[in-house]
Design goal:
It is a single chain. This protein is about 25% helix and about 30% strand. The protein is α+β, with helices and mostly antiparallel strands. Strands 2-3-1-4 form a four-stranded antiparallel sheet. It is elongated. The two termini are about 25 Å apart.
Length: about 80
């Protein structure tokens, strides 16, 4: 995991995004998605599971659900919010 996680600052609130992510087959897949998300400014925390094909991503209110979906999709997986 990266230490570069954003924290919600004054005037910012946190938003939790729940995703369905299809196509992950191993821990390497979920690890890749987690690393990409956690390297993104505005992501506070990402918990991705290949076993349940799901993810929970906490962001500052600067990122929309559509932004998070696009980030995950850029890793090559099919994602739905």
């Amino acid at each position: 995991m990266f230490d570069r996680q954003a924290t919600a600052g004054e005037g910012m609130s946190e938003v939790t995004h729940t995703l369905t992510i299809n196509g992950m087959t191993c821990g390497g897949c979920s690890g890749r998605v987690t690393r990409v998300l956690e390297a993104t400014e505005g992501v506070v925390k990402a918990e991705i599971s290949h076993q349940t094909n799901s993810g929970t991503v906490v962001t500052t209110d600067t990122l929309s659900t559509e932004d998070v979906v696009a980030i995950v999709a850029s890793t090559g997986f099919e994602v739905h919010a």
